[in-house]
UniProtKB/TrEMBL annotation:
Organism from which the protein derives: Vibrio ostreae
Protein name: diguanylate cyclase
The keyword Transferase belongs to this UniProt entry's keyword annotation: no
Residue stretches making up the GGDEF domain: 315-440
NCBIfam families in the record: GGDEF
Stored PANTHER family: DIGUANYLATE CYCLASE DGCM-RELATED, REGULATORY COMPONENTS OF SENSORY TRANSDUCTION SYSTEM
Amino acid sequence: MILNQTPLSTSSSFHLEVKCLLFTLVIIFLINTPMRFIKADKQADFSMQLSTLQDTLLLKRSTADSLLALADTQIAIDYFSEPQQFNDVSKQLLSTQTLVKSLKIISTQPDDTRYARLIEQYNRYYTSDLNKQQIQLFIAPHSRLLTEFKALYQGTRHIGYLVLEADLSEFSEVSRKDILLLGEDGTVYSSTDRSLKALDSIASKYPQAWRDLQLSNRNAGIMEYDDVSFIYRKFKLVSNHTSYLIKVVDNHELVPPYFYLVLLLGSITAGVSLYLYRLRKDKLELTKITYTDELSGLHNRHYLKKVSAQLTAQQGYYACILDIDHFKAVNDKYGHDIGDQVIKRVSSVIKSRIRITDYAFRFGGEEFVVVVKTESAQQAVNIFERIGDDVARFIQKPNVTISGGVWPVNDSLDEALKQADVLLYQAKQNGRNLIISQAA
């Protein structure tokens, strides 16, 4: 009997072990599947935040590039014989923005001793025609300056440099939580992460992450560690130097600690969690479709009605109605496809100039509503004038301008928009390409 029972006992034990293994695999599947969905969705949201920030920083980069392009103009080449024309142009350009603090021309033998050592090195570098178009970069984090040098030539003769000094803090400003902007050497240019501040080195806090980031060949990705995850993007922000935009995420923010315990209570809980998650995602997508203008990517009239019920006079909001000048002529001459591209272009400028506390809507056709929170009417007007300047400076055809009227949100947003519309009409009557406020 003992001989007969031994194989039966072994067989039963084997089947029990297989069942336990299968049950364990099912539990692991039920735990990991919803967890992956939740992590992937949040990581995608964070990646989208970084992409938006990158676009904003590159827009600032294009502003600096447009000023450096002066080195290729005749007024820059004639500077050493006729300096006044260049000085007038640079003064006018600097007055339209706050990013670049100084724009000047120096010779290959400068009087300014600040640049003497650098210019001596650069002069040797530019003896080769292969380096003629290269831009030199010098960053002084402690003085918050980013300086770029572009060689100036008269024919084939190297005669000097166009020197651009930018405000490093404004050039690298990021506003979202737990974001780092790093230079090529790991120096923190800007930070909203509590563990690191500007001018720190990321290697002092996260040495392994910095090593892995340098070794990565990808322009965007995610690096996961025990306690934190790093969602990153690599891009060329200054000259040919690599910059890093990083979102530092506590892993508990991706998956709450109690999540595992809840899922271990049973497959029903896992199924319900997954169902609710998918339902929530569908609802958010539906909300996005309901409140977003498909062409411009801005909010639409439906969302404007929702926002108008929330704003009060005490909050310090100013409303502006912006309108693309002569837009019908653009459609008639170039067609509606090009007209749509113009609307997208103006929308991108508006998005780049407003903050997270502000609102932007496509009101209909070529008309936009922008509501900004600021301390005074003049500051509000400055914001909208900068939007107008950015639109007018686009080199892509067709060239367009915008007009606008600005009014404070005193009684209600609807009333402010009515008054702003009156001012918009005045701006058009006064020649367009103009922003008119209540005080005007």
